[in-house]
Design a protein that fits this description.
- By secondary structure, the protein is α+β, with helices and mostly antiparallel strands.
- The chain has a single domain (24-131), classed as M1 Pyruvate Kinase, Domain 3 (Beta Barrel), CATH 2.40.33.
- Helices cover 14% and strands 30% of the residues.
- It has helices at 32-39, 87-92, 96-100, and strands at residues 6-10, 14-15, 27-31, 55-57, 69-72, 75-82, 108-112, 116-119, 124-126.
- Helix 1 links the parallel strand 3 and strand 4 (55-57).
């Protein structure tokens, strides 16, 4: 995955230019804090791009957010489930797949609910009850 300062979300499709378009797995999201905890014990910590997620967020616990709405700036993503690690994680760094196998450690995936730009530095929040 190539780092970018901004990306365009397309409702019902995902991120413009991304391989995963449509379905429920349009956007993958990883927590910076979880990534740091999982990679800390590894002999050589890989960069977050090795996880192959679309968004890296900080300050948000992604645990058990299935069905909730994550707001990135003014754009919304409905969280559909937990992202499980694949064999490519072990190729990225020995021990990485096992670390990401802990519940919710591999991040989450969801569907884009809005069209528009998201940018590095956008506030990230979980919507509460009536806003979903």
């Amino acid at each position: 995955m190539d780092p970018r300062d901004e990306a365009r979300m397309v409702a019902g499709r995902g991120l413009e230019g991304n391989a995963n378009q449509g379905g429920k797995r349009q956007i993958t999201i990883l927590s910076r804090e979880t990534w740091d905890a999982v990679t800390a014990p590894l002999p050589e910590a890989p960069p977050p791009m090795a996880r192959r997620a679309n968004l890296l967020v900080s300050g948000i616990d992604l645990t058990n957010l299935r069905g909730r709405v994550l707001r990135v700036g003014t754009r919304r993503i409905r969280i559909c489930g937990e992202t499980r690690p694949c064999e490519q994680m072990e190729e990225a760094a020995p021990g990485l797949r096992a670390g990401l196998a802990a519940p919710w450690a591999g991040g989450v995936f969801g569907e884009a609910l809005d069209d528009g730009e998201i940018r590095v530095g956008d506030a990230v929040t979980v919507e509460t009850g009536g806003e979903d």
